[in-house]
Amino acid sequence: MADSWKRLLFQILLLLVCCRHIDTKTPGATPPPLVPITSLATDERSVSLKGESHTEKVELLNPVNLALQCTWTGNQNKAPNITGFWRKDGDEVENSRVTVQLEGDQYELKRVFSIVNEESLGSYSCVFGSEAKIEFVLAAPQVGEVRDKPIVSYVGDSVVITCKMEEPKPKPSTWNWYKANGTDKISAVAEPLRYEIENEESKTKLVVHNLTEADGGLYYCGAVYAISTTMGRVELKVISFQEPLKPFIAIVIEVVVLVAAILLYERSQSKKDYTPENGTTDQMNTMAHRDNTGPEETSTRQRKI
């Protein structure tokens, strides 16, 4: 009996040990590699901070081992050492906490990250304790000339939609066009009667023929770089030829109704004025007739008598 209890206790302990090694976290996306890859080219960005925070934008075209260096002049206390660490998109990078010594009246924190694809881009921050932060925003060059107002065209017509990079920025390797949510790729080869795409070094044009109201919506131009594709958005509004006439027709109808109301009012007033005038005229004519005939009739009667 004692042996059975010992075996049961041993099995329980073994089960508890095994459960401690089970990871109960929900699996997420595979994190981008943060350690350097020897086959990649190397680049470096450095920022010296005198205040409490700073944001530095970094444009990348190709995968690269990027060395980020942060220098902070510290505060009034000038502690001999502080804790420094790194964050990626707000999350602390694993095993990045180190003790930063005060050297030359400043603190320095440096780390090399492998930026290999679009998932590797984003926000990288070096943090000095809870007092200072330098943020590096890594991204491919962004498409310029963002339109606030939509392009308006008519049913049955053709329309030209353009996107381009600003002149100082690097030229993309090619351009792509998408519709709807940015994933429905437009192919001029598959639908040559509907679409034409003209790509230049820093500019692209999409021509849409035989427009229908269904063609209205958002169009995305994608500037393709080795590290990522950046998107620009253009809205197209397709209307019928009667659409611009609707405000004019509404105004004309309002004018017609107003004129008709005025005419009806004047007509009713003229009828009211005409009736009293006729009655007064008849009375005056009768009285005048009596005045004219009155004396003659009296003298005639007197002669007869």
Structure in words:
The protein is α+β, with helices and mostly antiparallel strands. Helix content is 26%, strand content 36%. It contains 2 helices and 17 strands. The protein has helices at residues 2-20, 245-304; strands at residues 42-49, 53-59, 64-72, 81-88, 91-92, 98-101, 107-115, 122-128, 132-139, 151-154, 159-164, 174-179, 184-185, 195-199, 203-208, 217-224, 229-239. The strands form 4 sheets. Strands 2, 4, 5, 6, 8 and 9 form a 6-stranded mixed β-sheet that branches. It has a 5-stranded mixed β-sheet with strand order 10-17-16-12-13, with no helix packed on it. Strand 4 and strand 5 (91-92) form a beta hairpin. The termini are far apart. The relative contact order is 0.10.
What's the order of the H and E elements?
HEEEEEEEEEEEEEEEEEH
Overall body shape: elongated
Alpha-beta classification? alpha+beta
Low-confidence segments, ≥5 residues, pLDDT <50?
A: 17-32, 297-305
* Sheet having the most strands: 6 strands, mixed
Report the β-strand fraction as a percent range.
35-45%
Helical amount: 25-40%
Q: Tell me how many strands there are.
A: 17
Mean pLDDT: 80
- Computed over alpha carbons, the radius of gyration is 44 Å
State the separation between the terminal residues, measured CA to CA.
Answer: 170 Å
Please, how many helices? 2
